Amino acid sequence: MSGSVQSIRGFADILPSRTPLWRRLERIVRETLDGYGYDEIRLPVVERTELFRRSIGEVTDIVEKEMYTFEDRSGESITLRPEGTAGCVRACLEHGLLHNAQARLWYAGPMFRYERPQKGRFRQFHQIGVEVFGMAGPDIDAEVILLSARILRRLGLEDVRLQLNSLGSNAARAAYRQHLVTYFQAHFDALDEDSRRRLQGNPLRILDSKNPDMQALIEGAPRLLDHLDEESRDHFDELRRLLDAAGLDYDINPRLVRGLDYYSRTVFEWITDRLGAQGTVLAGGRYDGLVEQLGGRATPAVGFAMGLERLVALLEEREPAVAAAPHAYMVLVGGPAIAVGLPLAERLRDALPSLRLLVNGGGGSFKSQFKRADRSGARLALVIAEDEAAAGTVVVKDLRSDAEQVAVAQADLPARLRELLALNEIPGE
Ligand code: ATP
Ligand code: MG
Predict the structure, then answer these.
(1) Cα 292 from Cα 150, distance rounded (Å)
(2) Which of 258, 286, 318 represents a domain boundary (last residue)?
(3) 299 lies in which domain range?
(4) H/E element, 330
(5) Span from the CA of 307 to the centroid of ligand 1 (angstroms)
(6) Does 426 have pLDDT greater than 60?
């Protein structure tokens, strides 16, 4: 005999005990995005592999070794999306959303990367991302950053810090890259294996190394901020003024780079030290070149993505969230009671749409049904046995107080529940 089938490494189940926290997180993020006038876009989970090769960049970790790439049955190469920006740009171009228009968009959903699973790092993980198109100035960088700050604040997360950097123009970055290669080549012996590999293809990524042994060397590297072109410097200075004026605190981190190729100018991350090495909960920046790179007209763009697993982990430390308990549990003892109770439950739901009503299933004695009722957290038990079924009544018992139980006519039950539970529905609505 073979055992039960297990899940795939790095693909986690989110169990009912934790979904309330996820729902709270998602609701707060959604409400905040609504408040800033951002529109939701829903995107497919798979795209043509070419889309990611062309956008994220051939020599990035993601494209080199983290993508879930398959041939479908017709032999086409498709990839489970490792991030949301490329697909979002693809959809905008395909549907003409950027024609002479600004767009403020957001998306949510699972992303897939073949990484080594560990705390805060999974192979399927979830992001909510924001992308803004058609605005070149630092004012929109500031808006996006302030939006991210508000989301984290509304979530009650105080232990996160904003880090800010500018990658400059593509030309400035190319020149800087040369300085960096020269520096690291002079210290080749001190480089770890990953960094040696990155030295040729993507030397900026060395700055993002999480290896503690590399930190001293990285500290000594030339700083991108000292090599900015004038326009990028002005852009960055103005962004800082706007954030200062809004009273938002940040640290300048001249080593901050992003793992994807398409960023230019502003980059930022919100970081916590409560999650070990996986401390970035939200990351983003400006990517003015990407739309054109994917075949559209040159369009400035800025965005970010937040990692929901990491945010949930932070929220979990603070206070557990629990699902809302039912208002009432219907106890049905005997066949006639079930025949009366199920249609009555439906009538109650018709009359009281916000009522949370759990109906006993699978029979059972009074005792066992009351035990379930109690465990459900319901405040009231609505009890029907043979006598009540015959009389057209229901016994209403408060499970959380010593109040006397009362028999109520079935027809009067909606009004009585509305009163007892302070449901504010309008009768008959
Ligand atoms: P990291 O440096 O942690 O690998 P990244 O630079 O690859 O992150 P992005 O592509 O910018 O991450 O994704 C934005 C956010 O998504 C990250 O800041 C993080 O919160 C989350 N994230 C990225 N990869 C994973 C993963 N494998 N598991 C869980 N969350 C992740
Ligand atoms: Mg990564």
Answers:
(1) 31
(2) 318
(3) 19-168+228-318
(4) strand 328-332
(5) 6
(6) no
Q: Which residues contact 79 (CB under 8 A, 6 or more apart)?
A: 46, 47, 48, 49, 51, 52, 67, 68, 69, 70
Task: Please tell me whether residues 335 and 403 are part of one structural domain.
Answer: yes
The torsion region of residue 364 among left (phi > 0), alpha (psi -120 to 50) and beta comes to left
CATH of the domain at 255: 3.30.930.10
- Residue 187 inside a domain? The answer is no
Residue nearest to atom 22 of ligand 1 (CA): 307
Atom number in ligand 1 closest to CA 82: 10
User: What's the pLDDT score for residue 317?
Assistant: 86
DSSP 133-168: ES--SHHHHHHHHHHHHHHHHHTT--S-EEEEEE--
Residues 130/33, Cβ–Cβ less than 8 Å? yes
- Per-position DSSP letters for 353-366, written without gaps between them: TT--EEE--S---H
Is residue 326 pLDDT above 90, yes or no? yes
- 35-46: string of b/e by CB count within 10 Å (b at 16+)? eeebeebebeee
- Residues 248, 119: one domain? yes
HEC letters along 236-301 = HHHHHHHHHHCCCCCEECCCCCCCCCCCEEEEEEEECCCCCCCCEEEEEEECCCHHHHCCCCCCCE
Within 6 A (CB) of ligand 1 lie 83, 113, 115, 120-122, 125, 127, 259, 278, 280-281, 283, 305, 307, 309-310
Amino acid at site 154: R
Longest CA–CA span in the chain (Å) reads: 93
Written as one letter, the residue type at 346 is: E
The predicted pLDDT at position 328 comes to 98
Ligand 2 center to 384 CA (angstroms): 57
Q: In what order do the strands lie in the sheet with 406-409?
A: 357-359, 328-332, 380-384, 393-398, 406-409
What is the arithmetic mean of pLDDT over 367-383? 97
323 three-state secondary structure: coil
Nearest by Cα to 211 from 193, 224, 198, 197: 193
